[in-house]
Specification:
mainly alpha, 124 residues, elongated
Length: 124
């Protein structure tokens, strides 16, 4: 078993989970009118904008969970044939972390988790 890839996979799932939970508590709770999908308009954003932002928010979390599941699966099997997939996941996590770092001027901690996954994959 590759411990670094296992750690990267678990971290990816954790980051996705925190992303969805905090998004619901800190952002979407304010624009929800009782339904599952937020629909309350907010200034410049109409109902359709709010709905697609909510969906996109959770899609990002789902992608993180899937990447984590793939890393855990690779960690438990032969790593050699999966090296390219690990490189793709590492590069996408690093690019995402860099994007969050730049966009928030390093104030949002998400970049740490995303870059952490990238570094663990790179070290594996």
């Amino acid at each position: 078993m590759n411990i670094l890839l296992l750690a990267a996979g678990l971290l990816s799932i954790f980051v996705g989970l925190i992303h969805s939970i905090f998004g619901e508590l800190l952002i979407f709770k304010k624009v929800r009118d009782g339904g599952i999908v937020p629909a309350v308009t907010s200034g410049l954003l109409g109902e359709g904008n709010i709905r697609i932002l909510w969906a996109t928010w959770h899609i990002a979390s789902i992608f993180g969970w899937v990447a984590g599941a793939m890393l855990i699966s690779i960690a438990n099997n032969d790593f050699s044939g999966s090296a390219l997939f690990v490189q793709y996941i590492s590069a996408s996590m690093f690019a995402s972390g860099l994007l969050v770092f730049i966009a928030t001027k390093a104030r949002h901690p998400g970049w740490i988790g995303l870059c952490g996954v990238a570094i663990l994959c790179w070290l594996a």
